[in-house]
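Q: Two folds, back to back.
A: First:
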Amino acid sequence: MSSIYMFAGAAMPWIALGLLLAVFCVRAACRKMTQKKKDDYSSEGMSIGMCFGVAMATALHINVGIGMMLGLLLGLAMGSSKEKEDDKK
């Protein structure tokens, strides 16, 4: 059973990196198709997600790098789904 945890711990950063690259590529393709700049909370979501990922990794006693990557990925997904509203009305 410990070999499964070792494998998951070794493979998780690569899986998270692949998902992150897929999200960035899809976002870039969508922006090119619409040709208008949409402002969203992706950078705020990534920074907050990274903080929560590190906190959860510390609390659950797993590798901090894995927690940081997963938090970054989830924060990017949540932040890019919410668009900022224009204050210029």
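A: Second:
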Amino acid sequence: MTTPKVSDIAGIINKIAPFAFAEEWDNVGLQVGDPAAPAERIMVALDPIPEAIDAAISAKCSLLLTHHPLIFRPLNKLSLSDPQSALIARAIRHDLAVVSLHTNYDIASGGLNDLLAERLGVQDCVPLKVTGGDDLVKLAVFVPRDHAERVHDALVPFSRFIGNYSDCSFRALGTGTFKPLPGAEPFVGTVGTREYVEEARLEVLLRRGETGAAVNAMLKAHPYEEPAFDLYPLLNKGEERGLGRAGRLATPMTLGEFAAIVKDQLALPAVRVVGDPSRQVKKVALCGGSGASLMKDACFKGADVLVTGDIKYHDAREAEAAGLALVDAGHFATEHLMVRGLVKRLEKELADRGLAAEVIACESENEPFIYL
């Protein structure tokens, strides 16, 4: 097992929730620290607050992963009289790197909003507001029949799912011809002689952004000195991605009953509700954190209720007028579940890569609001 570097962990995060998915106004990725430093212990927290920084330092962590960015707006100066600057300096003094994954993790498949939907029993989810989608590329490579499975296995980690199906490819047999020229070191055949080889044409579907990595993996697995392959840009649209989620409940219920489930599943003392508690709800929209800006999208999707946090008075009045119920479960509670979710996901990703690092959840974070 190999100890990963901070850059290795950032690379894994970029695979889980590509930094390119983040909204333009956001600031994600490495906030402070040395990308070449070893990351033997990693802590995950929602906020880069003093309690989380201190907890990571006390636990002898070299990397802190946070949802909210440590540096959100450009800094004009670093003065230790400023609380944020002092926090940045404290992290640097203790060799603590900080990497943030914010709206990119909100948007990513399997990210925060999917974790929230799963927790609340919301099924068949699609993005509430589409912000982008995958451009697709088809890779076709010609490989000796006996080596086709090896090359296929090298490409599987990059191949796109088609619906609920993985490991998708097409394979057809044919005859390949080539003549090795002087200086060649052919896997099959003799220099100066035309060869006829039974080959398989192997096709897989890729995201455009992963084409380079997929080709490199294919070249490493391919037995030929100079493999023949083609890349085709496609007009097919890939999976849509976006903010929030819209889905359905397995069984319709009243707004009051659903609000009770939200309260129980997020371990809250109370939730704020807009709408008649006796009305029936089945279609649910949700957005962890502050999602009031997505109310119109929720209405467009035909949602009966939107679950989010930070609902303002005029948001509530607007929802009433639109006939949309609201459940305000707070910013903290609708996002804090990302901590355990990311710990679990990162542990799996590290194990799959043969990397040895301990990943722990920050236990010192609390909801800033209290109920009296």
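Q: And?
A: The longest strand covers residues 228-254.
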